[in-house]
Amino acid sequence: MSITSSAAGSPASSGKDTPIKPVKAGRQRDPYGWLRYVAIALALVFALFPIWFIVAAAINPAGNLNTTQWLPNGLSLGNYGDLTDARPFWSWYKNTLIIAGFGSLFAVFIGVCAAYAFSRLRFAGRRPGLMTLLLIQMFPSLLTFVALLRMFGDLGDVIPQIGFNTAAGLILAYLGGAMGGNVWLLKGYFDTVPKELDEAAKVDGASHARIFFTITMPLITPILVTVGMIQFIGLFNEFLLASVFLRDVDSQTLGVGLNALLTADRNKYFGAFCVGAVLASAPIVLLYLAFQKQLVGGLTAGSVK
Amino acid sequence: MTSRSPWLVLKWVAIAVALALVLWGAGKFAAAGNLPMVILLGFLGLAILAIYATRRAVPMKYLFPGLVFLLALQVWPIVFTLMTSLTNYGDGHMETKEASVKYLVAQSVKEVPDAPRYTMSVGVAQGGDVTTSPLVLLLTDKAGKTYVGSTDGVKDLTDGVTKNDAGKITAATGYQVLTGREVNARSKDLSALAVPFEGGGIKPSGLSEAFVGKASLQYDAAADRIIDTATGKRYGPQHAQWVAEDGSGSLATGWVENVGLRNYTDALTNETLRNGFVKILIWNLIFPLISVLSTFLLGMAFALLFNDDRVRGKGLWRSLLILPYALPGFVTALVWRQMFNQDQQFGLINKTLHLNIDWLGDPTWAKVAILITNLWLGFPYMFLICTGALQAIPSDVKEAAKIDGASGMRTIRSIIMPLVLVAVGPLLVASYAFNFNNFALIYLLTSGGPFEGNQTQVGSTDLLITYAFRLAIGGVTPNYGFAAAISMFIFVIIAIISLQGFRQTARLEDVN
What we know:
By secondary structure, chain A is mostly helical.
């Protein structure tokens, strides 16, 4: 940071000399302009060629034989038929949306309640509580899969509704990390909402629950959307727990099911897999493109992919 | 006050629903005879009442749901993992010692000539999953009397029994009778089932008959020995297994035993285990390091490239560039796996570049393949955070450097990079910690392989997490105890790395 302060104190920056910004001059004479565009083109090729490969393989009529072709032989829906004939693809889709949808909804609710308490309420053990959450979060929850496997095995024998092969059981298993995972990000946002609003409402006689649900919640909607989507994408992509919880083919998620499809016959089903991959990616890619700014802000402040 | 009443109703409805759920669960556990769970749920119900039905404990009202899930599904599993890591829990060591005796004796049952036979149907407890629940035998003897046999023993069965003409039970209260097809699907479980009965046992013979037999193994409780009546061999307890006193081997089923820190010391001292563990640990430390560095450098380069005002259409290019990041991780890993196929017909990379590299079969190339895949997967994230950091650098800083006569490269090296690193440093640490446990990438791309030599335990691209996964459920002989110990190792390493990283940030000091 010392660089910033010394540079900011230098005479060059003291005046507001926007009219003679060197950038303007640069736009007129950029001798390496074409080189820059070549570099950008190369970057885009690197980023997009596997995606092109998936799309090409998905629509290629001879999907199982010529998967290495850059250009499809034609346009065909044959692979789609192969996919839906071989596997309950739309059940997977439904399961994934249910698990990711409800899982993220509950997780956000739990997280926002906890964050509100940590940000606005004062109680004994608040600071140690936050620190403990951070520490527990460092124990990667997927390391406990052996324990979760045994717990839910026993649980499922008594209450089959939340045992293996159920979306409810898997959602429950995911909720363990709901509080710790989001509380820091949400608390940070709560801290930026002026306290005076709550206090004014309190003076008017509003209860804490009323303040929370009707005054504070609407103010933090942007971060709720962001956290919800990060959570949704995370659960959409989750593989380890889903693969050990969902053994029954009809109960599986897209990731588990598509992996099993490829494992069954890597070459025969590749075209069908690519159709599935394109369809599975669509909602996430659209979410990204539509909410780029919010997602980036949330990702850089919190979780990492 | 009138506006409050709907809220109040909602609150009480929510409390009632929560209590009803708790009560319902407690009833289920009570029926299953699981007293600790009933007590636990009782406390949960009381806690809900105490917190939400009174005006006290306001912070707890907000923390309670998260806290319950945190304790039940994260803290308890961690404690459970720690406890498991101190046992030999795993293949052949799943039950108590008494259960192992019972099981072994029942398993040794052989048919005695002229012993009674039963007409048999196979069932599971009502509500159980027909494909996984423990099987029970529904038996009818020659006199038409009916019984139910499980691994716990034989009980009379009278409630709601319906029989067909052959005397076969077709329905009984509390049990679900399996169809022929369902029984067939579980023939393996069925042949392993033996019901302890009068010093011997009842075993299925085929799919619709069962016989009473005598056990060749007998347990001498006073001497704590299992005796084989046919051969006269005596088996004594040793290292959680029944070992023959004449040293001729041991019986297949042992029991769970505390082994103290043996799993940990094994990982560090047992030659075979240690070599595997150390090899994996080294790769596990290197892989995230190279991944973070390569993705950061590429992401930073692209960020500099795209962050120039002279570039037109930046928004569109940026959106396209982050597409790899938007793709679900499982899709990426599986597609790259296909592209790395050595076969020219299927492997896009070998075909396009006219190479013949055994990408996923050679230990070194497999590592390269993983790093390339993760570079493609991870650079957009670095691109995004670097772009953010670049745009946060005040333009006058760059101008000052220019006026001082710094060249473009010099400005990047001495001005921009330090400023960007300050901003993204903590995220790089977090990224390292994330990749340290990047299970899905490794599992879907190489499954930890290739495997060198004649072993299937330690793969060349295994991370500790995929290794632990294979130990626990991937292999033929699961060793949960050792897998749990590996998990604890990972936790310690991750905690050290993360604490170091977070200490650099203001995050910890910012709590007020």
